[in-house]
TrEMBL record:
Domain of life according to the entry: Bacteria
Protein name (Swiss-Prot/TrEMBL): VanZ family protein
Organism: Niallia alba
Residue stretches spanning the membrane: 50-74, 81-101, 113-133
Matches recorded under InterPro entries: Teicoplanin_resist-assoc, VanZ-like
UniProt entry keywords in alphabetical sequence: Membrane, Transmembrane, Transmembrane helix
Taxonomic lineage from the root: Bacteria, Bacillati, Bacillota, Bacilli, Bacillales
Residue ranges occupied by any VanZ-like domain in the UniProt entry: 5-129
A Pfam family the protein falls into: VanZ
Amino acid sequence: MLNLFFFYLLTLIYITLKPFHFSPPNITEGKMNLTPYVQILYQYKYKPPFFWMLYTLGNIILFIPFGFILPMLYKKRFRTCVTIGLAVLCSLSIELIQYFFTMDRAADIDDFILNVFGAIFGYFLYLMMRLFVRRIVYKSFFF
């Protein structure tokens, strides 16, 4: 499971930081959006539905494995807080790296919100899977 999570993290880094350059941006370049839902609404209003769905669902789907696999690796208490906290830190790190070190990408609060939502959804899927597995084991053990 650890190898799968490591492979997922490498894929996540590749997808989000592919055009990577070590040149800090100028403040006036406008590579950061701190107003929530601006990019989502722009995609919805001015782009074909495919682009809006790709942008929105792509950011959500990108972090579902994070919320699903990480709790399997972290077996201690406060699993929910650790999973969501690390998802927040990971998404924030990606956005900051995109701002400071990429030329073709921009840091966007919408990406951050959608990524964290994806991790929470992945964690919810993990909880449902765990409940389902426990019921199957309970039924097969007692019946």
